[in-house]
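Progress narrative, Year 2. Work on Ribbon-helix-helix protein, copG family from Pasteurella testudinis DSM 23072 advanced from sequence curation to structure prediction during this period.
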Amino acid sequence: MTKRERSQTLGRKENVHVKLRPDELAVLDVEMKKNLLDSRSAMARTLIIEALRARGVAI
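Result:
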């Protein structure tokens, strides 16, 4: 394994899928909206908005 291959492997993160109940999702949506207001990063804001819209939450 070359140095480059090793660094690419170390930098990779596995996606973790968690099943949440509807009431837990609602709490998460509220938290995400709070983070949206606090977020200073335009990229973070964009990702939060996309995630909320994907679940059909009004922003």
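The chain has a mean pLDDT of 74. DSSP finds three helices and no strands in the chain.
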